[in-house]
Design brief:
The complex is a heterodimer of chains A (484) and B (756). With 484 residues, chain A is α+β, with helices and mostly antiparallel strands. Helix content of chain A is 32%, strand content 20%. In chain A, α2 packs across α3 and α2 packs across α5. The chains are: A alpha+beta (484), B alpha+beta (756).
Chain lengths: 484, 756
Amino acid sequence: MSILGASNNLILIRFILNKKEIQTALPPGTLLLDFIRYHQHQMGTKIGCREGDCGACSVLVGDFKNKNLHYQSATSCLTALGNVHGKHVISIEGLNMAELNLAQQAMKDESATQCGFCTPGFVVSLSGFCLTEQEPTEENVLAAISGNICRCTGYKSIEKAAGTVCKSLENRGNESPIDFAIRKNYLPQYLTEIPARLLALKQNLNGALQPKTAKPKFLGGGTDLYVQQHETMHHEDIDFLFDQSDLKGIVQKGDICEIGAASTVTDMLESPVFQAYFPNLKQIGKLVSSEPIRNIATIAGNIINASPIGDLSIFFLALDAKIHLKNGNEKRMVPLRSLYLGYKNLDRLPEEIVEKISFKLPDEQSKINFEKVCKRTHLDIASVNSALFVELEENKILNAGLSAGGVGPVPLFLPKSSAFLSGKTVSIELLEELLELIQTEISPISDVRGTETYKRTLLHQLVKAHFSVMFKELDVKQLMNLSL
Amino acid sequence: MKNIDSNSHLRGESIYLDDVPLVAGTLFAAAFGSPHAHGKILNLDLSEAEKMPGVARIFTYKDVPGENQIGGIVPDEPLLAEHHVHFQGMPVALVVAESVEEAKMAMKKIKIDIEPLPIITDPRVAREKGELIVPPRTFKIGDVDAAWSQCAHIVEGTADTNGQEHLYIETQGAYTFPLENGSIRIISSTQGPTAVQRHAAICLGIPMHMLEVDVTRLGGGFGGKEDQASMWAILCALATYHLKRPVKYSLDRMEDMRMTGKRNPYSSDFKIGLDKDLNIIAYESTYHQNAGAAADLSPAVLERTLFHSTNSYFVPNVKATAYSCRTNLPPNTAFRGFGGPQGMFVIEAAIHKAAETIGVPAWEIQSRNLIKTGDEFPFGQIAESEAKECWVVANQIFEPEKIEKEIKAFNAENVLFKKGMSFMPICFGISFTKTPMNQARALVHVYTDGSVGVSTGAVEMGQGVNTKMLQVATQIFSIHPNRVKIHTTNTFRIANTSPSAASATADLNGKAVEIACNAILDRLKTITAEKFSVSETEVSIDNEEVLIKGSPVGYNWSQLIQDGYLKRIALSEHGHYAPPGLHYDAKIEKGHPFAYHVFGTAITEVTVDCLRGTYLVNSVKIVHDFGTSMNTAIDRGQIEGGLVQGIGWMTLEEIVYDENGRLRSNALSTYKVPDIYSVPKEIDIKFLKTEKDNMAILKSKAVGEPPLMYGIGTYFALRNAIKAYRPDAEMEYATPMTPERVLMGLVGKKQEKVTV
């Protein structure tokens, strides 16, 4: 592997890798994975795909959140060094103790390692679970390893090991996860010293990373840019947005919700505002990628990436979200529904970044449903996804927003279908008419995610699914019999 | 015993190809693959690329000092393309540079002009055009043509299986080092060290004894690194040969997916005939194997398709013909099951179609026709069968009638969801079907401190073979496992190895270890007998303690080894094993190719979401014929992993090439293997302990490949669930059963060919 040249930037990147304080002059776009393997020569972090789809390179990234050190899993193959500036990074080597740690012992006991190549990634994810505040439930522990692919075991043994880890955390009570894990000797002792060391390090960061030129590349979490442009990103002049405090936070202002552009999908799923207003949030969240990717992928990134099947674009299109762009002090607002002009063509200047996303919070008479079907239900890109938002008065629809992905060159808002629903009373007949109308608003093409016919059929079905989920009073048999 | 690599795996300390510490002066390679699937090379312009920074040299076929040929069975595959290209990604040139980045940057500057030639991707089209890799083969028993008249039911149809990407999480790669006097050391992520050595010798024009191939372990292989690993190792060796510097090439995922072959897709025709009592009287099948652009292992894969054309059933009249068809895809290759699954899918499709036509559940036909001990396979071998035992025990333990009843009730109550179930019996022959390959060697050293080093031809790739080898040595010497170390697989220590494949690795190499250990043990017993003035038969070792007539005498393993050294007996042994009784005559297609067969039965239950076309596998319940498992933890892992890989092949893993032969499912974002959520909610495996004498190591039957075929059951369970929703669904017997295919069945539409 290459010895990448040192950058001219005077600000060195500093962070703690396991026990060791790192200070490097490498280009901040260098990937954490390459740094760990080829510069630190710690070979436990493996390369499987370099696109965040296998989890062999999983690491934990710790940073302060409300004064507490908070760890999340991340795929180091999509994480720029600039995004761990001032943070604590734990690789598999940083989880080893004299004896096997909790996750390692559990996996050994269940014979959950075969060829071993994916194993460190699973250990990192499971150990990371020991460090999070999440409730130790089976659902949560499986989500923690949802980004890890194993080609040997068939997962049952890993599932059992995860169960053991989960059970070991049950009696944690109110003790902090880190203290508990260390007291129980589940994880290495040195972790207790990290908060103080990291605080000290943060005092000496010498400022935030600054781009060198006037036209830098904007980078959020990197989960898309490092997949699409992995050969050039390392050397780009980057403006790191991920940790900019003015781009963080999800707040409620009256009936408006404002999401800082650099908020991650996990931030959204954990946000009290979202949890209060979207009771089915968790189910929706589970359909979006995997936990390590949700931890680093930003909401603005998902929208600006303009993938025709971006899950969050579809969700927010239905909600009629507004995109707040800024270029220095110049600010403007673009409705998401008019942001996409054509394939990967946006109503956005190259200098503009998203500052925040806002939308009107649904009231009690409103419903939203999100549907997504892909080859693999989780950690996959949709063949077709769709969201339907309705404001109701009894069973009359006052206002509706229907969106669909994978059926056109951009994430689609279906204006005719949405308008058609407004003022109508929910019935099978209404659905039948709607189903005909949606077909006139879409233009899917055959690709690796499905044939055109399939995508048309699938959207037809997903719109039926919206109705079936939202309007329980409809006769399921009648609904199922509506054919394309 | 736990896998002996557990701790180092879990601590991230196991060393794979890309983890080998870099030697100063290492160069990095990258292969330039053809951008076209078929054509004539008019011009290859390297001038600009050669001037790029860091480039050491760019190699073409002209630089191959020996023969430019890596074909294992048929010499039809050049190391580097000469005048023609036959698939997209076919290596044309090798860029070697000071860094990976520089090699890849330079590669982009290579210019190639190719005159396009017609592209074939469909094996049936290839057959029509006479593009066959080897002449077709036919297996016959009885007289199928005469038998149709005895049949009450005759059903015909086609059955297609798609390919499968191996998706070992560790990609292909090699690292080569110059040794003195022109020798080369090759570290390769290969299942076949000798294949690498043999073909490197051919390409470099040097004897095999100058090539040391060393393999510590693989991050997964599944057949994909049997012959396909050779290319990368030999390319590195070629560069080292010329440049006298270490050269490394670890493929990135997209290179690996684009440039290497996969499980052979098949398109097949079947005709099955049953009498009124549902006995299968006649079966005729024709297989069109999509071999890709070169033979690779396809002719052997083809042969195994024929060996397994009747799966677990006895059919008195069979005619099975197989064509290996040349197309413009990367050369397809071995993948767990090696053609067996493709053959078994066809007869299962035939049985299910017959069942639907007759109006009985498929399992009534399946259960009635299971092969019995004494029945003859179409290739002449007489069965030693556990098929019925597995089926009966599965019925006793899992009560499928109850499951069926519950499913019927569920389906009657539910509109949105439907359940389905299926039975999948399996029968898999153990041995390399090329009889001479059934041989193995082991080198056992006992050192003066009592520690033991074992080398074999087996490659550890997650299947736990090293653990089993250690168990054999430990058991024979009766010493503590810590005393034994399994060394790397190395062609300087063990020569002429067969690849770790065909599920036979533990059997063959284990027996060689057994032979070597027993030879040393015999010598140790001789000196002990002399020392204590007893006969050798009165000497034994139990848990490191030497026993005379069964009693300890204060003399242990360490002392015994010391004495052995002082008495100058050989504390090393090279064991050789070749299983007796195997023979096969391809001229008449009859013989006894397999040491034994492995049997089992799986019962699968699935639920389909009839609105969305999505599904989940509720449970797979298996009774499997293990013989006497020597390591239940490892063997269970093989069953679970094989099953899930088989389910992946049958359901969500979809390889898509476009009509230009370009792979569209070329990354993990577009090719989906099972994740933790998509595997069966429940996998229940019951060990059928079978005591019949067999040729397995310690009577522990081979377990690598057979379980993959349990996955076929998921396909048919899904069909049954779809039929429960739409009884008139007209669905082809084609895989994979993606949510698209399911939904098309549910809404009563024909699945269009997936082309993009």
